[in-house]
Amino acid sequence: MKRAGINDFRFHDLRHTFASQLLMKGGSLKDVQELLGHKTMTMTLRYAHLTQEHKRKAVNLLNGLTAQNGHTKKRGI
Question: In this structure, is the dihedral angle defined by the CA atoms of residues 34, 40, 45 and 46, taken in order, positive or negative?
Fold first, then answer.
């Protein structure tokens, strides 16, 4: 740890890394819950730390949702 310059690390931090990476690679919250053995989704959510880049990509999935063939189509929602 000293040679690598890593400070304030606990072995338990690996569980947070596992959960976050699994979600960002396409795993579901349910996958994380079961693999980490959490009884509640609330606990699972405490382990899911998504990067700002991942959140941006998630929002960008909605690009083009309201546009068809280069123009916007009004819909009653």
Answer: negative
How many domains would you assign to the chain? 1
Residue identified by tokens 């009004």 is 74
Query: Mapped to the 3 state alphabet, what secondary structure does the chain carry?
Result: CCCCCCCCCCCCHHHHHHHHHHHHCCCCHHHHHHHHCCCCHHHHHHHCCCCHHHHHHHHHCCCCCCEECCEECCCCC
Summarize pLDDT for 36-45 with one digit per residue, the tens.
Answer: 999 999 999 9
Q: Which domain holds residue 43?
A: 11-50
Residue 19: predicted pLDDT? 95
